[in-house]
């Protein structure tokens, strides 16, 4: 499935088990709008449910990943004091901006440039973050007189620790890619020209070598265990390990390793597309 119209706020292309989702408002720095939100979340949902997708890449068109909320919309809110309501004529889509966490497939952010505000929040909801050496980050909220948005205070403290999180949130200063890597904000920094090739190579390795069911289970474990204690995580892991030991994917994973061949894992069933983090 490919969308290419220049007026579409988010485009996507799927090949070799990898869906690449591109925020597509380069003339506005991929500034976030309601239409972009609906389009992106709908594509995430499609990727979660498609048997043809085993890994997802999120990136931005042009020079920016996402500069945060569109400045014209923010200016309108500041001027009127009113938050815009969703146009009921627009197609419905998942509304939760933590939706990426619930998708039962790995999501890799390929951060190609400015990553601010809600753009940074969406990058934090991805499972892995690759950054161009030209990427730059800022939470932005404190310098706009705003609260930390959409779970950022929770996500950042767990990803980079309280000290770094408070620095990023309170100062809203600009952080460039090398510092972001040092503090653990991103997994890997690569030359700008190599970003998409590196992200795609990583996604392809997941798609070709890892069991979709196992990746879903592990992603669910990681997010649930962030909200739990060590002993509960240990007990849950024992139950899950016993269940996977008797599964067909374990047999195929072991056989492919012993026979020195590529594994042949089935796609994730649609009924397992999303993770329920409250269970």
Question: How would you describe this structure to a colleague?
Answer:
With 279 residues, the protein is an alpha/beta fold. The chain has two domains: 198 residues, 2-enoyl-CoA Hydratase, Chain A, domain 1, CATH 3.90.226; 62 residues, Lyase 2-enoyl-coa Hydratase, Chain  A, domain 2 (Orthogonal Bundle), CATH 1.10.12. It is built from eleven helices and nine strands. Strands 1-2-3-4-6-9 form a six-stranded mixed sheet, with helices on both faces. The longest helix has 16 residues.
What are the defining features of this structure?
globular, 2 domains, Lyase 2-enoyl-coa Hydratase, Chain  A, domain 2, 9 strands, 279 residues, three-stranded mixed beta sheet, six-stranded mixed beta sheet, disordered N terminus
Secondary structure elements and their pairing?
Layout: E1 10-15, E2 18-23, H1 34-49, E3 55-60, H2 71-80, H3 99-102, E4 107-111, E5 114-116, H4 117-125, E6 128-132, E7 136-138, H5 152-160, H6 162-171, E8 175-176, H7 177-182, E9 188-190, H8 195-209, H9 212-226, H10 230-245, H11 248-258
Parallel strand pairs: 2-3, 3-4, 4-6, 5-7, 6-9
Antiparallel strand pairs: 1-2, 7-8
Helix pairs in contact: 5-6, 9-10
């Amino acid at each position: 499935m490919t969308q290419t119209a220049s007026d579409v706020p988010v485009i996507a292309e799927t090949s070799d088990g990898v869906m690449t989702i591109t925020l597509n408002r380069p003339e506005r720095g991929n500034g976030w709008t309601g239409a972009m939100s609906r389009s992106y979340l709908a594509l995430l949902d499609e990727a979660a449910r498609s048997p043809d997708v085993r890994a997802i890449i999120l990136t931005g068109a042009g020079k920016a990943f996402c500069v945060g909320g569109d400045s014209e919309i923010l200016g309108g809110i500041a001027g009127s004091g009113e938050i815009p309501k969703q146009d009921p004529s627009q197609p419905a889509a998942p509304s939760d901006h933590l939706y990426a966490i619930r998708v039962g497939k790995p999501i890799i952010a390929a951060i190609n440039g400015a990553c601010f505000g809600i753009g940074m929040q969406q990058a934090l909801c991805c499972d892995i973050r690759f950054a161009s050496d030209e990427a730059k980050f800022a939470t932005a909220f404190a310098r706009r007189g705003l609260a930390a948005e959409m779970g950022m205070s929770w996500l950042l403290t767990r990803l980079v620790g309280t000290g770094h999180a408070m620095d990023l949130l309170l100062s809203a200063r600009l952080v460039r890619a090398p510092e972001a890597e040092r503090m653990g904000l991103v997994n890997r920094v690569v030359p700008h020209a190599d970003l998409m090739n590196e992200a795609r190579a990583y996604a392809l390795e997941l798609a070709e070598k890892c069991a979709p069911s196992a990746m879903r289970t592990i992603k669910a474990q990681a997010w649930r265990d962030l909200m739990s204690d060590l002993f509960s995580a240990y007990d849950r892991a024992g139950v899950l390990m016993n269940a996977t030991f008797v599964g067909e994917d374990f047999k195929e994973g072991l056989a492919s390793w012993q026979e020195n061949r590529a594994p042949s894992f089935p796609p994730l069933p649609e009924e397992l597309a999303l993770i329920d983090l409250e269970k």
